[in-house]
Amino acid sequence: MAKKLKKGILITFDGPEGSGKSTHSSRIKDELLSQGYDVVYTREPGGTLLGKKIRNILLEKDEILFGKTAELFLFEADRAQHVEEIIVPALAAKKIVICDRFSAATFAYQGYASGTEIKTILDMDYLATTGIVPDLTILLDVDVKTGLERAKGQFSPDRMEKKPREFHEKVRQGYFTIAEEHPGRIKLIEACQDINRTYELVKKEVYDFLQ
Asked: Residue 165 class from Cβ within 10 Å (0-12 exposed, 13-18 middle, 19+ buried)?
């Protein structure tokens, strides 16, 4: 029997490349489903049919060149469709939504690392999300060298993973800044230790929040 919630809950996972966000977000999804929670699992970019097309352009098509403003528009277009098509209906149905990446990634990658003004991203993101903010964000941290080795060792590197190390250092520092600004909502977890130990920390944060 599904557990009933008083309201929908949005839990997002974020972090630098190779931090394990996809692994741990999927694992907690399975955990919550086994405990009777009604869970919707999704990701950005690519959580909708339109999003999959945008993801392909953003991450896989090296021959397509675009500037940082166009890149921001593409990520926010993906998010706008994602929020309208997937997230809002699931929250209205009082489900738990677990999302692999959300707004924090845009501030870290397109803002702190790429140099787009944070105020510009705030305005764009508010329009795309209609003001929706995650109830809980699990921010997994890993040093850049370890993270890139992990990421590139799993699959062929995508456009983001191919960026220089300096870029990824800025991404990581950007995430630290974001976490400091939202200490109640964003939970920072070191992800360079044993994978099962990391997951136990993730699970504790999620269940502490739900309870």
From this structure: exposed
